[in-house]
Amino acid sequence: MPSSFKFRWSATCLAVGLLLALPITQAQERPRQDDASMHVSPYWTDTWRGWHFYEEPEPDPPEAPASAPKLPANPPTLAQAKLPTKAPELIEFERLKKAVESYRNIAIMRPTEANVRRYMALEAKVVARASYFADVAQHVAWSTPELDPTQQGRPVNAKALEVFDRDQLAERSQTIATLGKDHVLFFFFRSDCSYCHALAPTLAAFEARHGMKVVAISVDGGPMPGFADARTNNGIANTLRVTKVPAVFLAQPFTGKITPIGFGVLSEAELLERITTVSTPAAQAMLPGVNRHVVLQ
Is the pLDDT of residue 270 over 50? Predict the structure, then answer.
C-alpha cells in the first residue's frame, strides 16, 4: 500500500473518529445538564439520604466589587515596557534595503525589461544617496582634523609625503644611534653567495652612517670584502637556526637577546624600518617568541 494512501487513510479515520466521538460525548453530558437544571432525580439514586434530611442551601458566589480595575488579558512584560522605539531612519533604511534585495532577486529570476528597469532605478537612488553621504563626510573631515584619514598615519599628498619620509628617517636614525650603544648587527654570510656580496656594501655603509657595529660571521669560513675581521661560525648559526643567507640579526651582547631582522638582500631603508620596529617594547611584547637568548662568546 503506498505511503500517501496510508497517510490519507489514517487522516480520514482520525477525522471520522473525532466526528463520531463528538455527538456521543455531548449525548453523555446532556442528561447531567438536564438533571442539574430540573433538580429531579429518581428516588432510588438518593437512598443514602434517607427519608428525613436537611441540607443547607449553597451560598451564592461573591460578587466582584464594582470599583475593581480590569486587568488587560495580556499585560506587557517589563522588557517590553522598557523596549526603546526604533528610530524612523532605521525603519526607512531597513525598508529600503529589503526593497533593493527584493527588486534584485525578482530581476534575476525574471529578467524582463520592466523588472530590470525597476531595480536599476532603485539602485540609482541608493547610489545617489551614498554619494551625497560621501560628500557630507568629506566636508566634515575637512573641518575636523581628528576625523580626517589623510591626517592620520602616512600622508597621501606628495609634498607632505616628502616631509614625512624626511622626518621619519631622522627619527629612525636617532633611534639606531641610541641602540648602537649596546646593540650590534650579526651578518651571516657565505663566501660563495652572490646575494651576500650584494648586501655587504649596504651593511658597511649602514655601520658608517648610523654608528651601529656590524659583526660579520662566515658560515663556510670564507672571507667577505669589506669585513676583514669576519668571524668564523662557532655554532651560533645552528643555535639561531640560520638556514638561509644572507641573514641579519639584532643582538644585545650583555643580555644575550637576539632578534631576527630579515633574510636576503635588504636596503638601508628596510634595515632602518625593521630595526626600529622590532626594538620597540610593544613589538617585543607582541612577538615574544621571536627573541632568542644565547650565550655570546
Answer: yes
Which residue in the block uniquely carries the three cell numbers 624600518? 273
- Same domain (yes/no): 252, 192: yes
- Rounded to 5 degrees, what angle do the CA atoms 198, 189, 231 make? 125
Do 239 and 277 sit in the same domain of this protein?
yes
Last residue of a domain, one of 125, 152, 179: 152
Q: Is residue 184 part of a domain?
A: yes
Asked if residue 166 belongs to a domain, the reply is yes
Do 91 and 175 belong together in one domain? Answer: no
Task: Please tell me whether residues 172 and 265 are part of one structural domain.
Answer: yes
DSSP characters for the chain?
Answer: --HHHHHHHHHHHHHHHHHHHHHHHHHHHHHHHHHHHHT---GGG-GGG-SS---PPPPPPPPPPTTPPPPPSSPPPHHHHTPPPPPHHHHHHHHHHHHHHHHHHHHHHS--HHHHHHHHHHHHHHHHHHHHHHHHHHHHHHH-GGG-GGGSSS--SHHHHHHHHHHHHHHHHHHHHHHTTT-EEEEEE-TT-HHHHHHHHHHHHHHHHH---EEEEESSS---TT-TTPEEP-SHHHHTT--SSSEEEEEETTTTEEEEEEES---HHHHHHHHHHHTSHHHHHH-TTT-EE----
| CA pair distance 133, 222, nearest whole angstrom | 65
Domain containing residue 222: CATH number: 3.40.30.10
Q: Which residue has the cell 573631515?
A: 141
pLDDT of residue 198: 95
pLDDT in tens, 83-112: 678 899 999 999 999 999 999 999 999 999
